[in-house]
Amino acid sequence: MEPVVPVTLGREDTPAGEVVLRRRGEVLELFVDGTFTMDTVDTSTEVLLATEALRRHPAPGRVLVGGLGLGFTTRAVLDDARVRHVDVVELAEPLVRWAREGLAPELSGLEGDRCALHVEDVADVLRRGAGPSGCWDLVLLDVDNGPGFLVHPGNADLYRTPLLARARGVLRPAGVLVVWSSHAAPDLEQHLRRVAGPQDRIEETVLEVARDGRTFHYALYTLARGR
To answer: Residue 145: which of 80, 202, 219 has the closest Cα?
Structure first.
């Protein structure tokens, strides 16, 4: 069988590096600054980022999603009728533009009455220096491959105490923060414990995914804020 030749759908330079969206057969792939970030071979963990957060909150009316990716986390959030509004914050302007233009079906149709896409650094949003204003019932962070495998070195701050404290601070009472990681990240869990209040709950959820004959272990780190 001949190998499938990838077709580039979009390629653009940004201050944070080159963003490339390409199709390999039926698979959509996203690369940022020369690093593979995700594809559509298995999107289960992106969906679980949403569903695990949603099941932990009785009334998740407002949701902040840090990182558009290929849109699967946001789509899973919008599938929950309890959600009234979703703010999606994405650093790469081309990715947001391609979503609005419908460059790929997987990305199209997200923005509407219940969802707004924002071209901002989610760290600035958490610092309340840019973009949409909180507070939110859920904050979902999937802006990188986790603290040990960064696409952008500047994202390291998102996994440390000061910015995690900011993330907790934009949660409403009983709000939930969930951070996605491509690997177990005990240091991230410790940073979350440092910012947690006395009534908060911290949890690590390990996700096992079989892919290409190998088993991978991803992780979600949750801070559920007390009332």
So the answer is: 219
The backbone torsions φ and ψ at residue 168, rounded to the nearest 5 degrees and listed phi first, read -60, -35
- Evaluated on CA atoms 42, 45, 48, 50, the torsion sign reads negative
DSSP letter for each residue of 27-43? EEEEEETTEEEEESS--
Question: Model confidence at 146, in pLDDT bands (50, 70, 90)?
Answer: confident
Question: Given the DSSP bridges, would you call strands 171-181 and 214-224 parallel, antiparallel or unpaired?
Answer: antiparallel
Q: Kindly list the distances between the CA atom of residue 52 and the CA atoms of 55, 126, 176, 221, in Å, as whole numbers in the listed order.
A: 5, 21, 10, 10
Average pLDDT over residues 205-215: 82
- Cα-trace Rg, the chain: 17
Write the DSSP symbol of residue 140: E
Tokens standing for residue 180: 């996605």
Mean pLDDT of 201-210: 90
